[in-house]
Design a protein that fits this description.
The protein has about 100 residues and is α+β, with helices and mostly antiparallel strands. Helices cover about 55% and strands about 15% of the residues. It starts with a helix and ends with a strand. It binds 2-acetamido-2-deoxy-beta-D-glucopyranose.
């Protein structure tokens, strides 16, 4: 009887581990799908400005009351250490 129940508990543990693995892999998969969607998300810019002499990303973001996170999100192709006078930066937009 004791032997039988320990076999049964091994079986249940195995089933538990397997279902956990299944849950984890499903989660990993949906994360992957989510990342793909995120990577292909479209940024739409509603308003741009030309960078003026001496301006930095941080200053532009502050001027238009944007957090750096939002600023970076609507300006995915801008490298703030390479910003130049006359470069167009997005100061209002959305990420879908
Ligand atoms: C931005 O430009 C700097 C200077 O050329 C470079 O070192 C850095 O890797 C670039 N960053 C990105 C995210 O491309």
């Amino acid at each position: 009887m004791a032997k039988r129940s320990s076999k049964l508990s091994i079986f249940f543990n195995l089933a538990l581990v397997l279902s956990l693995l299944l849950i984890i892999s499903t989660m990993a998969e949906s994360r992957l799908i989510f990342n793909v969607i995120k990577a292909s998300s479209k940024v739409s810019c509603d308003s741009v400005i030309g960078v003026k002499s001496g301006e930095t990303c941080t200053e532009i973001a502050a001027k238009f009351k944007l957090s750096t996170t939002v600023f970076d999100a609507i300006n995915p192709n801008i490298n703030c250490s390479k910003i130049f006078v006359g470069q167009w930066v997005c100061i209002d937009g959305s990420v879908n």
